[in-house]
From TrEMBL:
The keyword Oxidoreductase applies. InterPro entries: IorB_Oxidoreductase, Pyrv/ketoisovalerate_OxRed_cat, Pyrv_flavodox_OxRed_cen. This is Indolepyruvate oxidoreductase subunit beta. SUPFAM superfamilies: Pyruvate-ferredoxin oxidoreductase, PFOR, domain III. It comes from Fusibacter ferrireducens. It holds the Pfam family POR. PANTHER family: INDOLEPYRUVATE OXIDOREDUCTASE SUBUNIT IORB. Residues 13-190 form the Pyruvate/ketoisovalerate oxidoreductase catalytic domain.
Amino acid sequence: MAEVKNILLCGVGGQGIILASKILANGLINAGYDVKMSEVHGMAQRGGSVTTQVRFGEKVHSPIIGKGQADILVSFETMETSKWLDYVKPQGQVVMNDYEIPSAPILSGAATYPTGIIEDISQKIHTTVLKGSELASQIGNIKTMNVIIVGALVKAMGLDASIDWDKVIKANVKEKFVDINIKAFKLGMDQVK
Protein backbone atom coordinates (compact mmCIF):
# COMPACT_ATOMS: atom_id res chain seq x y z
CA MET A 1 0.00 0.00 0.00
CA ALA A 2 1.71 3.17 -1.17
CA GLU A 3 -1.12 5.53 -0.19
CA VAL A 4 -1.21 6.69 3.41
CA LYS A 5 -4.55 6.16 5.16
CA ASN A 6 -5.69 8.51 7.90
CA ILE A 7 -7.92 7.59 10.85
CA LEU A 8 -9.11 10.15 13.38
CA LEU A 9 -10.63 8.81 16.61
CA CYS A 10 -12.51 11.20 18.89
CA GLY A 11 -14.55 11.07 22.05
CA VAL A 12 -14.54 11.99 25.71
CA GLY A 13 -12.03 11.15 28.43
CA GLY A 14 -12.65 7.77 30.04
CA GLN A 15 -14.08 6.07 26.93
CA GLY A 16 -10.97 4.00 26.22
CA ILE A 17 -9.95 5.83 23.07
CA ILE A 18 -6.22 5.51 23.78
CA LEU A 19 -6.52 1.72 24.22
CA ALA A 20 -8.62 1.49 21.06
CA SER A 21 -5.94 3.41 19.14
CA LYS A 22 -3.18 1.21 20.49
CA ILE A 23 -5.03 -1.95 19.43
CA LEU A 24 -5.51 -0.45 15.96
CA ALA A 25 -1.90 0.78 15.64
CA ASN A 26 -0.40 -2.50 16.88
CA GLY A 27 -2.51 -4.52 14.46
CA LEU A 28 -1.37 -2.34 11.57
CA ILE A 29 2.28 -2.59 12.65
CA ASN A 30 1.94 -6.40 12.81
CA ALA A 31 0.63 -6.30 9.24
CA GLY A 32 3.83 -4.57 8.11
CA TYR A 33 2.61 -1.00 7.74
CA ASP A 34 4.55 2.06 8.79
CA VAL A 35 2.32 3.56 11.48
CA LYS A 36 2.37 6.93 13.22
CA MET A 37 0.03 7.80 16.08
CA SER A 38 -0.56 11.00 18.03
CA GLU A 39 -2.75 11.64 21.06
CA VAL A 40 -4.40 14.78 22.39
CA HIS A 41 -5.81 14.35 25.87
CA GLY A 42 -7.10 17.85 26.58
CA MET A 43 -9.14 17.84 29.78
CA ALA A 44 -9.61 14.09 29.46
CA GLN A 45 -9.86 13.38 33.17
CA ARG A 46 -12.66 15.92 33.47
CA GLY A 47 -14.77 14.53 30.63
CA GLY A 48 -13.11 16.70 27.99
CA SER A 49 -12.33 15.87 24.38
CA VAL A 50 -9.80 13.20 23.52
CA THR A 51 -8.54 12.59 19.99
CA THR A 52 -6.01 10.24 18.51
CA GLN A 53 -4.73 10.20 14.98
CA VAL A 54 -3.48 7.01 13.36
CA ARG A 55 -1.80 7.18 9.97
CA PHE A 56 -0.55 4.10 8.14
CA GLY A 57 0.90 3.09 4.80
CA GLU A 58 4.17 2.10 3.17
CA LYS A 59 5.93 5.18 4.56
CA VAL A 60 4.36 7.75 6.89
CA HIS A 61 6.31 10.94 7.59
CA SER A 62 4.06 12.67 10.13
CA PRO A 63 1.47 11.58 12.73
CA ILE A 64 -0.74 14.63 12.16
CA ILE A 65 -3.94 14.68 10.10
CA GLY A 66 -5.06 18.04 8.75
CA LYS A 67 -8.59 19.22 8.01
CA GLY A 68 -10.14 17.38 5.08
CA GLN A 69 -7.55 14.58 5.21
CA ALA A 70 -9.11 11.80 7.32
CA ASP A 71 -10.29 8.75 5.39
CA ILE A 72 -12.41 7.82 8.36
CA LEU A 73 -13.61 9.53 11.52
CA VAL A 74 -14.34 7.18 14.40
CA SER A 75 -16.44 8.87 17.04
CA PHE A 76 -17.05 7.37 20.47
CA GLU A 77 -19.53 10.10 21.50
CA THR A 78 -22.28 11.68 19.38
CA MET A 79 -21.59 15.40 19.88
CA GLU A 80 -17.84 14.94 19.38
CA THR A 81 -18.58 13.74 15.83
CA SER A 82 -19.79 17.22 14.85
CA LYS A 83 -16.67 18.86 16.28
CA TRP A 84 -14.31 16.80 14.12
CA LEU A 85 -16.36 16.27 10.94
CA ASP A 86 -14.43 18.88 8.94
CA TYR A 87 -11.33 16.66 9.21
CA VAL A 88 -12.94 14.01 6.97
CA LYS A 89 -12.30 13.89 3.22
CA PRO A 90 -15.39 14.53 1.07
CA GLN A 91 -15.30 10.87 -0.01
CA GLY A 92 -14.44 9.65 3.52
CA GLN A 93 -16.66 7.94 6.04
CA VAL A 94 -17.74 8.07 9.67
CA VAL A 95 -18.13 5.27 12.20
CA MET A 96 -20.18 6.84 14.97
CA ASN A 97 -21.24 5.64 18.40
CA ASP A 98 -24.78 6.70 19.26
CA TYR A 99 -23.85 7.58 22.83
CA GLU A 100 -24.28 10.89 24.61
CA ILE A 101 -22.07 12.21 27.41
CA PRO A 102 -23.30 15.66 28.44
CA SER A 103 -20.54 18.28 28.74
CA ALA A 104 -20.12 20.48 31.82
CA PRO A 105 -22.19 23.36 30.33
CA ILE A 106 -25.01 20.93 29.54
CA LEU A 107 -24.86 19.38 33.02
CA SER A 108 -24.97 22.83 34.61
CA GLY A 109 -28.01 23.83 32.56
CA ALA A 110 -26.13 26.56 30.65
CA ALA A 111 -26.60 24.66 27.37
CA THR A 112 -28.65 21.81 25.94
CA TYR A 113 -27.45 18.71 24.16
CA PRO A 114 -27.92 19.28 20.41
CA THR A 115 -30.52 17.17 18.63
CA GLY A 116 -30.45 15.68 15.12
CA ILE A 117 -26.68 15.15 15.01
CA ILE A 118 -26.86 11.61 13.63
CA GLU A 119 -29.39 12.50 10.95
CA ASP A 120 -27.43 15.61 9.92
CA ILE A 121 -24.11 13.78 9.60
CA SER A 122 -25.66 10.78 7.85
CA GLN A 123 -27.01 13.12 5.15
CA LYS A 124 -23.56 14.63 4.55
CA ILE A 125 -21.27 11.59 4.49
CA HIS A 126 -21.29 7.77 4.45
CA THR A 127 -21.98 6.95 8.11
CA THR A 128 -22.17 3.73 10.12
CA VAL A 129 -23.99 4.26 13.42
CA LEU A 130 -23.46 1.89 16.35
CA LYS A 131 -25.30 1.62 19.63
CA GLY A 132 -22.09 0.74 21.44
CA SER A 133 -23.41 0.86 24.99
CA GLU A 134 -26.31 -1.47 24.16
CA LEU A 135 -23.98 -3.90 22.39
CA ALA A 136 -21.49 -3.82 25.28
CA SER A 137 -24.32 -4.43 27.76
CA GLN A 138 -25.44 -7.46 25.72
CA ILE A 139 -22.08 -9.13 26.27
CA GLY A 140 -21.97 -8.13 29.93
CA ASN A 141 -19.34 -5.37 30.19
CA ILE A 142 -19.98 -1.73 29.26
CA LYS A 143 -16.23 -1.09 29.23
CA THR A 144 -15.92 -3.12 26.01
CA MET A 145 -17.70 -0.38 24.05
CA ASN A 146 -14.35 0.93 22.77
CA VAL A 147 -13.31 -2.47 21.37
CA ILE A 148 -16.72 -2.90 19.72
CA ILE A 149 -16.07 0.40 17.92
CA VAL A 150 -12.58 -0.74 16.85
CA GLY A 151 -14.12 -3.91 15.40
CA ALA A 152 -16.55 -1.80 13.37
CA LEU A 153 -13.72 0.45 12.18
CA VAL A 154 -11.59 -2.52 11.11
CA LYS A 155 -14.48 -3.97 9.09
CA ALA A 156 -15.42 -0.57 7.59
CA MET A 157 -11.84 -0.12 6.34
CA GLY A 158 -11.47 -3.71 5.10
CA LEU A 159 -8.65 -4.49 7.55
CA ASP A 160 -10.27 -7.66 8.86
CA ALA A 161 -8.74 -10.33 6.61
CA SER A 162 -4.98 -10.00 6.88
CA ILE A 163 -4.43 -9.21 10.57
CA ASP A 164 -4.68 -11.55 13.56
CA TRP A 165 -6.79 -9.22 15.71
CA ASP A 166 -7.27 -11.84 18.46
CA LYS A 167 -3.49 -11.87 18.95
CA VAL A 168 -3.39 -8.06 19.00
CA ILE A 169 -6.14 -7.88 21.63
CA LYS A 170 -4.36 -10.48 23.77
CA ALA A 171 -1.21 -8.33 23.66
CA ASN A 172 -3.02 -5.12 24.68
CA VAL A 173 -5.59 -5.98 27.36
CA LYS A 174 -5.29 -7.63 30.76
CA GLU A 175 -5.52 -11.41 30.57
CA LYS A 176 -8.81 -11.66 32.47
CA PHE A 177 -10.47 -9.34 29.89
CA VAL A 178 -9.10 -10.96 26.71
CA ASP A 179 -12.07 -13.23 25.92
CA ILE A 180 -14.75 -10.59 26.40
CA ASN A 181 -12.77 -8.07 24.32
CA ILE A 182 -12.35 -10.58 21.48
CA LYS A 183 -16.10 -11.14 21.63
CA ALA A 184 -16.65 -7.36 21.63
CA PHE A 185 -14.36 -6.88 18.63
CA LYS A 186 -16.24 -9.51 16.60
CA LEU A 187 -19.58 -8.01 17.61
CA GLY A 188 -18.40 -4.62 16.32
CA MET A 189 -17.31 -6.18 13.02
CA ASP A 190 -20.75 -7.77 12.67
CA GLN A 191 -22.37 -4.30 12.78
CA VAL A 192 -20.82 -3.24 9.46
CA LYS A 193 -22.38 -4.64 6.32
